[in-house]
């Protein structure tokens, strides 16, 4: 598996900038659009659960589950970006993740504040 399998965040071609900070150097907030979020729920795969159960007895990273979580987070961010774009924003500030697990699977929510950014000189 490649390191990209475990990465995160939107692609470089994304039309909406997503940052975990409250501001962006050289840019100012022209308009606050409001809260946006992307939510996804993934069910647990029986095969990976059995494999991870066995591996957990011996220690080490559960790479299959790590990859699934990275994919789940990426999907949540994609949905966050779609919502921001649909509401006319070009950036999401203070993006965070919330993750919860239950017997049926894992829920990941990416959320933040959608804004319209402009150059600071404008």
Automatic annotation (TrEMBL):
Family annotation (Pfam families): YbjQ_1
Domain of life of the native organism: Bacteria
Similarity comment: Belongs to the UPF0145 family.
Name under which the protein is recorded: UPF0145 protein GCM10009757_27340
Lineage summary: Bacteria, Bacillati, Actinomycetota, Actinomycetes, Kitasatosporales
């Amino acid at each position: 598996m490649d390191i990209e399998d475990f990465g995160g965040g939107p692609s470089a071609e994304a039309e909406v900038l997503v940052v975990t900070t409250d501001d962006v150097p050289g840019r100012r907030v022209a308009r606050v659009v409001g809260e946006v979020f992307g939510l996804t729920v993934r069910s647990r795969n029986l095969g990976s659960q059995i494999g991870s159960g066995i591996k957990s007895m011996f220690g080490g990273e559960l790479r299959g589950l790590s990859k699934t979580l990275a994919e789940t987070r990426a999907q949540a961010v994609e949905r966050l970006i779609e919502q921001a774009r649909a509401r006319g924003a070009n950036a999401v500030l203070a993006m965070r993740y919330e993750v919860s697990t239950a017997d049926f699977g894992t829920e990941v929510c990416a959320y933040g504040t959608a804004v319209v950014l402009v150059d600071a000189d404008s």
